[in-house]
Design a protein that fits this description.
The protein has 18 helices and 20 strands. With about 550 residues, it is α/β, with parallel strands linked by helices. It folds into two domains: about 280 residues, Glycoside hydrolase/deacetylase (TIM Barrel), CATH 3.20.20; about 230 residues, Spore Coat Polysaccharide Biosynthesis Protein SpsA, Chain A. The longest helix has 18 residues. It is elongated. The chain starts with 5 loop residues before the first strand and ends in a 5-residue tail after the last helix.
Length: about 550
């Protein structure tokens, strides 16, 4: 075989938080809270390709093209092909044809606006046998090829025609469409990808090298290699809310992939899909996919009323956030709070009070750096670690507003809900987020932890005779004048329950707001479970004996 014959290299351009392995924990509402890292990962891929004179097809998400046109222009200027990866990073499985077509059109429009010409498509998630209807839609819209099929596993065991690069006739389309599946090999009855990022990171490197060499030596069709841009970013934040298997899929050998791809680039010649189809398969040169301007009608013109609107001053609110060893979460947290402030700037003036509970990592350093140039942000620090409840109490007493909120730095409760909780305050002295309320919800929280929390809350409810379902939440809204004078015996997690007990014993009014509790995405919980359980049992004994008032 010709040693210089080209193979195909594709790059899926995605942010690390768009990954399929994280989708069960990282929801769409979380995306804007993460720091974008697509530039650094994509630039590393571009540098490696330029170093070896290789070309590739970059499958670009429409949302990324819309927000980062400069990156698309750099890819095109480097001589690489850009193709559609859909607009949103979501599976097409179960999607209606009309919704899929609209997603295609929006992605093409975004990529075209950034200077890219689209002729091909790859689904953000690999297709299964039930999803082959998308090929008909693609062909009718004028796409030249699709690269959404990965024959690994059993999904396409009965469809051998999708194991090689070939043209397929599609009913109802003027011309067919080329399918460019991922190249696979077989070992002991198990099919694995020869040259994709997952195999290069998860399987023994000599094994995939031998498979690629055998493919190059024995087969005429090109080796189709596929990597994802976030796989070239080993410094990406670690999301801890997913299962161990998913963390392994996402993070194992991230620091090795760049060098392993370099080995392929040194040994083989690579080009993009369109170049291969035009040069080898005889695909005629056609224009890119075009979207009708009617697909995106202009926004309606809104005529402002000539009657001046009566304005009211924003409600002054303080937000207290206790922090201990939170260096991994600070960037995510601050981006989240900035979004809350921007959304409610007309109705709420939020002063952020961050209380560092004597962290030993870079929490205080990062907070100090982040506070520069930020308005309405106050930093406090304990000289020794005193616990989350003590940190919240320190922030409440330092607040200059009557209404004070508190929440965890990990944003396990959506801070957007705080504004709804403030509206619930009314005649109450404290509003607490309540995932264990009949209308509340939990997501990705371990069952054993839920069982413990629900049991403890049930015991507090029965002993105190108060219809509260959640006693340990840190997401609350307070009347400062009612809670600031309270002295707590416990400064740690127990103090959150103790604060409710003492407020109720003093005649305070507490109401619950049904909320969604999610597992923290970044970092790990600081709570010592067994110690906390023993502490709650002791606290309940003190309540029964009348020692807590």
């Amino acid at each position: 075989m010709d040693a210089a014959r080209p193979h195909i290299l594709t790059v899926s351009l995605e942010e690390y938080f768009h990954s399929d392995a994280l989708c069960g924990a990282v929801l769409q509402k979380h995306w804007d809270r993460f720091e974008p890292r697509i530039d650094r990962s994509a630039d590393r891929v571009l540098k490696a390709l330029d170093q070896h004179g290789a070309k590739a097809t970059f499958f670009v998400l429409g949302i990324l093209a819309e927000r980062n046109q400069g990156l698309v222009r750099r890819i095109v200027a480097a001589g690489h092909e850009v193709a559609s990866h859909g607009f949103w990073p979501r599976s097409v499985h179960g999607m209606e044809v009309e919704d899929f077509a609209a997603d295609l059109d929006r992605a093409v429009a975004a990529i075209a606006a950034a200077g890219g010409l689209v002729r091909g498509y790859r689904s953000p998630r690999w297709l299964c046998s039930d999803d082959l209807w998308v090929l008909e839609t693609l062909a009718k819209k004028g796409y030249s090829y699709d690269a959404s099929i990965n024959p690994v596993g059993r999904k396409f065991a009965a469809l051998p025609q999708f194991h090689t690069v070939r043209k397929h006739d599609v009913a109802g389309a003027e011309r067919g469409i080329f399918e460019v599946p991922l190249s696979v090999a077989s070992w002991a009855g198990y099919r694995y990808a020869v040259a994709d990022g997952h195999s290069l990171r998860q399987l023994p490197y000599p094994m995939v090298l031998r498979a690629a060499a055998r493919w190059h030596r024995e087969r005429r069709e090109p080796l189709v290699c596929s990597v994802t841009s976030w796989e070239f970013d080993p410094e990406q934040p670690r999301v801890t809310a997913v299962k161990a298997l998913h963390r392994r899929r996402q993070y194992r050998n991230l620091d090795c992939l760049a060098e392993r791809l370099q080995g392929y680039l040194r040994q083989y010649r690579f080009t993009g899909i369109l170049d291969h189809l035009q040069r080898v398969q005889g695909l005629p040169v056609r224009g890119p996919v075009v979207v009708s301007p009617l697909a995106f009608p202009p926004a309606p013109i809104v005529i402002q009323s000539a009657i001046p609107q009566r304005s009211t001053a924003p409600l002054a609110v303080s937000l207290v956030v206790p922090m201990f060893q939170e260096e991994q979460s600070i960037a995510y947290f601050l981006r989240t709070i900035d979004a809350v402030r921007e959304r409610f700037v007309a109705t709420h003036a939020i002063t952020l009070i961050c209380v560092d509970d004597c962290s030993r990592d870079r929490t205080w350093e990062l907070l100090t750096a982040a506070s520069e140039g930020r308005t309405n942000m106050q930093l406090l620090r304990h000289e020794q670690n005193r616990g989350v409840a003590a940190a919240i109490q320190t922030g409440i007493r330092a607040a200059s507003t009557e209404i004070v909120c508190s929440m965890d730095c990990d944003c396990s409760y959506d801070p957007m809900e705080l504004l709804q909780m403030i509206a619930r305050l009314g005649d109450a002295d404290l509003v607490t987020a309540s995932p264990y309320h009949p209308d509340g919800q939990v997501l990705n929280v371990p069952r054993w932890r839920l069982c413990l929390s629900r049991t403890l809350s049930f015991m507090y409810r029965r002993i105190l005779g108060k219809p509260l379902y959640t006693w340990t939440s840190c997401c609350r809204v307070y009347r400062r004048s009612k809670v600031a004078p309270i002295e707590l015996l416990h400064g740690d997690f127990l103090g959150m329950a103790e604060m409710l007990v003492r407020l109720l014993r003093r005649g305070g009014v507490v109401c619950e707001y049904p909320a969604l509790l999610e597992a923290r995405l970044l970092g790990v919980s600081k709570m010592k479970t067994l110690r906390t359980v023993r502490g709650h049992i002791a606290l309940l004994f003190f309540v029964l004996s009348g020692r807590i008032r």
